[in-house]
């Protein structure tokens, strides 16, 4: 992404970085320094006025941030981090962003606190690209600057988003497509209704992975991204997600919603490199089938 540079005259590190990589935002460059992204002759340097001499090799490394598997806050697992992105595995029962009732137990708050290294007066923050229901676990993407957020959101309808769900009952067809018009006007529950000026079209493709114990493990690919879309479509099919009492589930065997965001594929907002992430179905859900 950023090729190493060889210093040709004495300089201080921060001004040199600004000059050597003019396309990078100054805030981003300072973030590189803070999180040991900058190396001089192979050694990480965080001091902004570190002296450079002719012949020194300055590089921006890609492994400076949290390593995959790092856990932040209330069980947030990092899958990937660079100067533009944070890809995480959100545990169930964690809001994406604050509500009136809950300000701090959110992915947004805890990731922002992580970027600020616990300093509430720092200015770093994450930017929300998309959301998962509080009850749903799995992969989420956060941007680390507004430019990355804008690029990601502009193309988010083309990103590949796959979920796995354990549902009550046995879906009869091995694959198919759910379609309906959703009424999202209620803040608490979404309904499939007749098309009107206030409804939104929702399309979910599904593929059965396994049937066992009176339940079905199904993979779902979103063509549209409506609120509660998967949950409504499965309930409409007579196979609500286990634990989803809001949409008619009769059982809650593992005290959580049986829905998991397991695959994301999208282009990197800076390099356009194709990125793919997978998060296996949590063991407590896999055991149900």
Topology:
Elements: E1 5-6, E2 11-12, H1 13-20, H2 26-34, E3 38-40, E4 43-44, E5 51-52, E6 57-60, E7 71-72, E8 76-81, E9 85-90, H3 107-115, E10 127-128, E11 137-143, H4 146-154, E12 160-168, E13 175-183, E14 191-193, E15 200-212, E16 215-222, H5 229-236, E17 259-267, E18 274-278, H6 283-286
Parallel strand pairs: 11-17
Antiparallel strand pairs: 1-6, 2-5, 3-4, 3-6, 7-8, 8-9, 9-11, 10-11, 12-16, 12-17, 13-14, 13-15, 15-16, 17-18
Molecular structure report:
The chain has 289 residues and is of the alpha+beta class. Helix content is 16%, strand content 33%. The protein has six helices and 18 strands. It has helices spanning 13-20, 26-34, 107-115, 146-154, 229-236, 283-286, and strands at residues 5-6, 11-12, 38-40, 43-44, 51-52, 57-60, 71-72, 76-81, 85-90, 127-128, 137-143, 160-168, 175-183, 191-193, 200-212, 215-222, 259-267, 274-278. The strands form three sheets. Strands 7, 8, 9, 10, 11, 12, 13, 14, 15, 16, 17 and 18 form a twelve-stranded mixed beta sheet that branches. Strand 3 (38-40) and strand 4 (43-44) form a beta hairpin. The longest helix is centred in the N-terminal third of the chain and has 9 residues, at 26-34. It is elongated, with a radius of gyration of 22 Å. 34% of the residues are buried.
């Amino acid at each position: 992404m950023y090729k190493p540079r060889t210093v040709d005259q004495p300089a201080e590190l921060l001004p040199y970085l600004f000059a050597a990589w003019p396309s990078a935002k100054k805030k981003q460059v300072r973030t590189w320094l803070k999180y040991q992204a900058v190396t001089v002759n192979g050694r990480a340097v965080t001091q902004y006025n570190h002296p450079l001499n002719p012949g020194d090799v300055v590089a921006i490394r890609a492994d400076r941030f949290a390593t995959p598997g790092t856990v932040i806050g209330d069980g947030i697992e990092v899958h990937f981090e660079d100067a533009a992105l944070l890809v995480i595995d959100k545990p169930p029962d964690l809001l994406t962003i604050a509500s009136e009732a809950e300000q701090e137990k959110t992915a947004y708050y805890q990731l922002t606190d992580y970027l600020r290294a616990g300093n509430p007066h720092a200015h770093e923050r994450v930017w929300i690209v998309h959301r998962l229901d509080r009850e749903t676990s799995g992969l989420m993407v956060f941007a680390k600057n507004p430019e990355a957020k804008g690029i990601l959101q502009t193309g988010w309808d083309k990103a590949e988003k796959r979920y796995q769900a354990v549902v009550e009952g046995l879906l009869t067809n091995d694959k198919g497509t759910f379609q309906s018009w959703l009424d999202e006007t209620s803040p608490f529950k979404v309904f499939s209704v007749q098309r009107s000026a206030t409804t939104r079209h929702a399309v979910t493709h599904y593929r059965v992975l396994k049937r066992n114990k009176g339940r079905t493990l199904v993979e779902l690919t979103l063509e549209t991204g409506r609120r509660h879309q998967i949950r409504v479509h499965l309930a409409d099919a007579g196979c609500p997600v286990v634990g989803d009492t809001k949409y008619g589930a009769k059982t809650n065997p593992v005290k959580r919603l049986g829905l998991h965001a397991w695959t994301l594929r999208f282009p990197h907002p800076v390099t356009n490199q194709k990125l793919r992430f997978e998060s296996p179905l949590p063991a407590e859900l896999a055991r149900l089938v």
